[in-house]
Design goal:
By secondary structure, the protein is α/β, with parallel strands linked by helices. The protein is 45% helix and 13% strand. The strands form four sheets. It has a four-stranded parallel β-sheet, with helices on both faces. A two-stranded parallel sheet has the order 4-7. Helix 1 packs across helix 7 and helix 6 runs parallel beside helix 8. It starts with a helix and ends with a helix. The site of guanosine-5'-diphosphate (GDP) has 20 residues, from helix 6 and strand 5. Guanosine-5'-diphosphate binds next to helix 6 and strand 5.
C-alpha cells in the first residue's frame, strides 16, 4: 500500500527512473540478495517502506516474524545504503513505537520514555531499532538517513485479509459482505472505545516526498492528521458509507490494544505540510477502490 502510493507520487512529480522490487522478486530478509541489488542498481534515494505489517491479531500472533523480518529488512537495506553511498534514505516506522501510556498527543521526544503496548511490542522494537540504525549511521558515517513515523494508514492496495488486516480494511470488507449477504449483524472487535488516528496512503506518500526534499535532521518526524476518532465512530462511519443497515456486535474477547495513539504533528505543520484527505472522503474513495478491485483483494 505505502510503496505503491510513493511510486504514484513520484510518477506524478515526473520521475522516470524509479527502481522497485516486489517481495517475490527480492527477499529483503536475505542479506546477500539485498547486497547484490544495491551493487547492481546503485540507487541515489531510498524510500524504505517495506516491512512485515499487520493488524492487532497478526502482530500478536506472529511475534517472531514481526521482529525477525523487520530487523532483517531494515538492517540489510540501511547497511547496503551506507556501503553503496546512497545520498539520502527515508525510513518509515509507526506510531506504535511510542509507550503505551505516553501523554497525548505523542511528541517525537516521548520515544523510549515508558513500556510499550504488548500486542505489538515485537514490531515496535524492530521499528525503534530502524530509527536507531539511521541515527547511528548518521552520527558515525555522516549518512543522510532520516526517519518518519506514520500514524495508522489506509488506502488502495491495503490488506483485506480479516486475520491480518488493520481495522479500516477489515470493517470495509465485513460491512460490505454483510450488506451483500443480507446479514443482520457485523462483528467488531474490542469495546469500541480505543481511539485511532487515520491517514490516507496518498497523503503519507506526499509527506514522504516532502521530507525527502526538505528534511535533513536526525530527530524523526511524526506523520499524521493530528485528529482521531473512537473505533466505534470509525465503525459507524464505514457502516454508513457502505450502506449496511444491520447492527454492530462488539466482541470483547478480542483485544482493544493501546487506548490511544494520537500523533503530535506540529513539527510537520511548522515545516509547511498538512494532510489533504479527511477521513470520510478517504473512506469513500477507499470503498470505491475496494469495489473495483474486490477480486484482487479477496483471494
Ligand atoms: P492497532 O492500531 O495496532 O491496535 O491495530 P488494528 O487496526 O488492528 O486495531 C485497531 C482497533 O480496532 C483495536 O481496538 C481493534 O480491536 C479494533 N477492531 C475492531 N474491529 C476490528 C477488526 O475487524 N479487525 C481489526 N484488525 N481490528 C478491529
Amino acid at each position: 500500500m505505502v510503496g505503491s502510493a510513493i511510486v504514484r507520487k513520484l510518477q506524478d512529480e515526473g520521475y522516470t527512473t524509479i527502481i522497485t522490487r516486489t517481495s517475490s522478486e527480492l527477499d529483503l530478509r536475505n542479506q546477500a540478495a539485498v547486497t547484490d541489488f544495491f551493487d547492481q542498481e546503485n540507487p541515489d534515494y531510498v524510500f524504505l517502506a517495506a516491512a512485515k505489517v499487520g493488524g492487532i491479531l497478526a502482530n500478536n500472533t506472529y511475534r517472531a516474524e514481526f521482529l525477525y523480518d523487520n530487523l532483517m529488512i531494515e538492517s540489510n537495506i540501511i547497511h547496503s545504503a551506507y556501503k553503496t553511498g546512497v545520498k539520502k534514505l527515508l525510513f518509515l516506522g509507526s506510531s506504535c513505537i511510542y509507550p503505551k501510556l505516553a501523554p497525548q498527543p505523542l511528541k517525537e521526544e516521548y520515544l523510549l520514555s515508558g513500556y510499550l503496548e504488548s500486542t505489538n511490542e515485537p514490531y515496535a522494537i524492530a521499528k525503534i531499532t530502524g530509527i536507531k540504525l539511521c541515527d547511528a549511521y548518521r552520527s558515525q558515517y555522516g549518512c543522510n538517513f532520516i526517519s518518519a513515523m506514520p500514524t495508522n494508514l489506509y488506502g488502495p492496495n491495503d490488506n483485506y485479509n480479516l486475520q491480518g488486516s488493520h481495522v479500516l480494511p477489515a470493517l470495509i470488507r465485513k460491512f460490505h459482505e454483510a450488506k451483500v449477504n443480507d446479514e443482520p449483524t457485523v462483528e467488531v472487535w474490542g469495546t469500541g472505545s480505543p481511539m485511532r488516528e487515520f491517514l490516507h496512503a496518498d497523503d503519507l506518500a506526499d509527506a514522504c516526498f516532502f521530507l525527502m526534499e526538505n528534511y535533513n535532521d536526525e530527530l524523526f518526524v511524526n506523520i499524521g492528521t493530528g485528529e482521531d476518532v473512537t473505533i466505534r465512530e470509525a465503525a459507524e462511519l464505514i457502516k454508513d458509507i457502505v450502506g449496511f443497515e444491520g447492527e454492530l456486535r462488539w466482541n470483547t474477547e478480542k483485544p482493544d490494544g493501546t487506548p490511544r495513539k494520537l500523533m503530535d504533528v506540529s513539527r510537520l505543520h511548522e515545516m509547511g505540510w498538512k494532510h489533504r484527505t479527511e477521513l470520510r472522503q478517504g473512506l469513500e474513495m477507499t470503498y470505491q477502490d475496494f469495489l473495483a478491485n474486490e477480486v484482487l483483494y479477496i483471494e
